[in-house]
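Morning run. Coffee first, then this:
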Amino acid sequence: MLGGRIKQARIAAGLSLRGLADASGNYISAQVIQKYEQGITNPGSDVLIKLSKALGVKVEYFFRPDAVQVSLTCPVYRKRASLSKKYLESVQAQVKDKVEKYLEIEALFPADRFVRSAIRKMKQHKIYKMDDIEKLTGSLRAIWQLGLDPIENITEVIEDRGAMIIPLEAEDKFDGLSCWANQNIPVIVIKKGLSGDRHRSDIAHELGHLMMEVAPDINEEKAALRFSGAFLAPADAVYRELGKHRQNLDLIELNALKRKYGMSMQQWICRAKDLGIISESRCSQLFQYFSSKKWHFKEPGHNVPLEEPQRYKILVLQAVTEGILSPVRAAEFLDVPYYQFRKDMMKDLEETHS
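And here it is:
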């Protein structure tokens, strides 16, 4: 168990055996670290302190019981450029650690409290053409009783349907990840530090990867992008907002729609093009205009509020409130002191009251 924890923390930190030895100030050699990981020998307390500092974890991490076993299957990465195998392994190790913590917290409560994933219940739908995606998102909204109105908080909607949404510090080249934990728990990983509209779009995008099985002749990323737009703004709602045929779109109306639906102006332009409301050439012209103004990364106008996944935090809070978990143990799950966590959570209450 101890050796496995050391190895998982090393991979999550993106370090080789030699790299960890260097990070420890060569206090431990790569050969000895390998023996620790293989369980041939166990490190002393002085070594564990050195390892914890080098790996950026608390010493308690190495002794965390293997209360749950986690395997990740079918990870789908989104990246704008090639990322090293070592970096992708680091991401998977970080995700695995966070899923383990999530399941450990859930295990503190009665099993019948948590419903089976509504996402898993719906088998992956085969997509042979882009129009199939419109039908799929329409069916999904109907089953989940979302109607045609804007989704106020997509993070809550997806969490309530049994998915784990995990924010992760990541390189610029990394855009997102979706996978299944233990073959039946949907996991969506989003990059920290993004705008609110990008955050919402990425969650819907990763949901698309989980829900769809696309035909070989269809680009999977383009299909997921279409799913994202169709889920956030259903076709009938788009026609109601824009009409069925337009020569052009104005920035003012795009900003108003961004505010109403929490979807970027650029995604609205794509949505209008996908539904045949504007032409391909008009879409290209609008994107060229955004690019000339350097708006393709940071749009002007309304800033969509950032949605924070709350379910995991609330479960930790409830476990402490019910005396199931100590504040000290809670800090291990939250990666911050418990008093700081409560202080941060109270800010929203105080702001609402004021």
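The chain has a mean pLDDT of 90. Good start to the day.
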